[in-house]
Each structure stands twice: as C-alpha cells, then as structure tokens.
C-alpha cells in the first residue's frame, strides 16, 4: 500500500507548480492589455 502522506505531498508540489505557471500566464496577459 502506498504512503498517503507521500502521495499528498507529491500532489501538492505538482499542483503548486501548475498554479505558479497559471499565475505567471495571468500576469503576462494583464501586462499585455
């Protein structure tokens, strides 16, 4: 059985990176307008 804490941590890191990229895209869009 997999380690639930490790799974949650890895998922949180992955989600954090996606959210960071999304924020950067929003910043670029806001600067362009």
Fold topology:
Layout: H1 4-32
Radius of gyration, taken over Cα atoms and rounded to an integer in Å: 15 Å
Mean pLDDT level: 83
Largest sheet data: none
* Distance linking N and C termini: 50 Å
**Unreliable runs:** none
Shape verdict: rod-shaped
Strand residue percentage: under 5%
Order of helices and strands: H
Query: Structural class of the secondary structure composition?
Result: mainly alpha
Helical fraction equals over 70%
Query: What is the number of helical segments per DSSP (H or I, 4+ residues)?
Result: 1
Number of extended strands? 0
What do you see in this structure?
The model has no long low-confidence stretch (mean pLDDT 83). This protein is mainly α. The chain has one helix spanning 4-32.
In short:
With 33 residues, this protein is mainly α. It has one helix at residues 4-32.
Provide tags for this entry.
single chain; 33 residues
């Amino acid at each position: 059985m997999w380690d639930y804490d490790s799974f949650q941590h890895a998922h949180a890191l992955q989600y954090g990176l996606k959210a960071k990229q999304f924020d950067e895209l929003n910043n670029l869009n806001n600067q362009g307008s």
